[in-house]
Write a structure and sequence with these properties.
Oligomer: single chain
Distance between the termini: 24 Å
Helix content: 10-25%
Strand content: 35-45%
Radius of gyration: 13 Å
Shape: globular
């Protein structure tokens, strides 16, 4: 659980997506393996059949997102989030999936995420 660790970066979801869109190789070098706190609007909350949660952050009008795979100890927090709220999620940056077609949107991926605090 990363709750006791200090983030290397704190950034808005939209700014993080924009940074990767403008220069993904530079952003990869900056963030890879770093602990990042991302603040953003919750687009949706997914969970699979094994009960793993992913919080999807970003502008609901935009195709690109920040995908935050939740730490297994944080499922209760993820399940209780309101879909229209903004939230701070902290996790390790692991990948950027660029949409070369322009049809699906690109995804910034974090794992081992926790919800820092719920914004009101």
């Amino acid at each position: 659980d990363v709750s006791g660790l200090k983030s290397n970066y704190k950034v808005q979801a939209a700014d993080l997506i924009k940074e990767f869109a403008e220069n993904d190789s530079s952003a990869m070098k900056k963030y890879l393996g770093k602990l990042v706190t991302v603040r953003g609007q919750i687009k949706k909350i997914d969970h699979d059949e094994e009960g793993y949660y992913t919080i999807v952050l970003g502008d609901s009008a935009g195709l690109s997102s920040v995908l935050c795979a939740m730490d297994t100890t944080q499922h209760v927090d993820a399940a209780n989030l309101n879909k229209v709220s903004s939230v701070n999620v902290k996790g390790y940056f692991i990948a950027f999936e660029k949409d070369e077609t322009g049809l699906l949107g690109s995804d910034v991926k974090l794992n081992r995420c926790i919800v820092e605090k719920q914004a009101h």
